[in-house]
Amino acid sequence: MSESGNRKLAIICSKGTLDMAYPGLVLANAALMEGIDVMMFFTFWGLDIVNKKTMNHLKATPVGNPAMHMPNIVGVLPGMTDMATSMMRKEIEKLDFPPIDEFLEMIHDAGGELYSCRMAMDMMKLEKEDLSENVDEVIGAMEFMEKSEGAQIIFI
Amino acid sequence: MSESGNRKLAIICSKGTLDMAYPGLVLANAALMEGIDVMMFFTFWGLDIVNKKTMNHLKATPVGNPAMHMPNIVGVLPGMTDMATSMMRKEIEKLDFPPIDEFLEMIHDAGGELYSCRMAMDMMKLEKEDLSENVDEVIGAMEFMEKSEGAQIIFI
Amino acid sequence: MSESGNRKLAIICSKGTLDMAYPGLVLANAALMEGIDVMMFFTFWGLDIVNKKTMNHLKATPVGNPAMHMPNIVGVLPGMTDMATSMMRKEIEKLDFPPIDEFLEMIHDAGGELYSCRMAMDMMKLEKEDLSENVDEVIGAMEFMEKSEGAQIIFI
């Protein structure tokens, strides 16, 4: 519960692949449409989702992902990650999901709070200016714990 | 809490590898045995766990998984994924865990609710008929948010 | 809520890579500093985090991780995992985070409860003696469900 007594969802995004970025964004969006308070916390590889340089170039990868039904030896050939990525990108477009930057803006405009992790930014030498302007604030793990009190927490 | 005031667990399964399928099934089963209400939501690669064609052929993969203690160059040789898979399958059998299809039936029969994600099914061009008959319903992300109110949510 | 009415966090660690070990430890530590009750449950590859033989040799891997911005064909060359690992280890040190064994001790001394999963230990043929002495107890999935009642649960 939030201070207002509202249901609350906190989503930690720690992965920067196309197939792990969309689940967080889709759940955040669905929760907002249900009137639930939403906060997202981008950390480790998940920073790629809000990094202006990488956000619209996330990749899906067929290597080490047996669900893609390709032998690993094929997955490492140059070009296969690009192929998996463009296939997934097309499917996402067909479903009318916006590209990452627009999706972040949509979530932010609907009241979702977006935070990035100070420690991970230090590790990757990123500054606030490197991130989407939809990111509200850079916070530490302790502040995340404070803000997520009473929330359902999802770690992706 | 569920409407009946019961403790409630919602498990989102987003990965289709053998080593990420069993944790969800084992936790669901343990929770049901403790009298906890359980719902599972299969999305993205997690659909492979309930897809009739793939459910009993999930693979463990040694590539990109340093915990398997094999150099990556070995992991991509044809046959290594099969070896890792058959090793894990044997260990799972020794522990008396059932194969995936029987495990789903066990969970369903014990009152666990199984849902698959409409969006992911559209992406992968799957129909309800392609899935295990133990899947109760195909739902969207908003319906998932509604059904998981008051639950402890786990994203795998 | 714990029995004492305190806020409670349960972290399931299922992955044994350097980049997935630290998020759990950092969140546990931050929660304890906020006065939150913390329990960690190590299962599957996450056992490597508390296994005395592996805990201080966890690896980051560039294969199948597009966020590392290296083509997969490079990622499988012998030595690349070691390079990614030593790069990450240096960054972690710069941020003044302790190595895994010291971090576990710190969390344990601050009141965090550390459990390992019996089933996963059986699969990997590990005994309690193989684990860090900071692990309080080996428990099953049902006991985990009991102990995590009222907690915010995070699955990493």
Q: In brief, what are we looking at here?
A:
Chain A is α/β, with parallel strands linked by helices and 156 residues long. The first copy, chain A, has helices at residues 18-33, 72-75, 80-94, 100-109, 118-123, 141-147, and strands at residues 8-13, 37-42, 113-117, 137-139, 152-155.
How is the topology of this model organized?
The structure is a homotrimer of 156-residue chains.
Chain A: E1 8-13, H1 18-33, E2 37-42, H2 72-75, H3 80-94, H4 100-109, E3 113-117, H5 118-123, E4 137-139, H6 141-147, E5 152-155
Parallel strand pairs in A: 1-2, 1-5, 2-3, 3-4
Helix pairs in contact in A: 1-4
| Basic shape of chain A | globular
CATH-assigned homologous superfamily of chain A = DsrEFH-like
CATH class of chain A: Alpha Beta
Structurally, how many domains make up the residues of chain A?
Answer: 1
Enumerate the strands of the largest sheet of chain A in spatial order, edge to edge or round the barrel. Answer: 4-3-2-1-5
What proportion strand of chain A? Answer: 15-25%
Percent of residues in helices of chain A comes to 25-40%
Low-confidence stretches of chain A: none
Known CATH architecture of chain A: 3-Layer(aba) Sandwich
**Roughly how many Å is the radius of gyration of chain A?**
16 Å
Oligomer: homotrimer
Structural class of chain A: alpha/beta
- End-to-end Cα distance of chain A: 21 Å
| Number of beta strands of chain A | 5
Written as H for each helix and E for each strand, in order along the chain, the element string of chain A is EHEHHHEHEHE
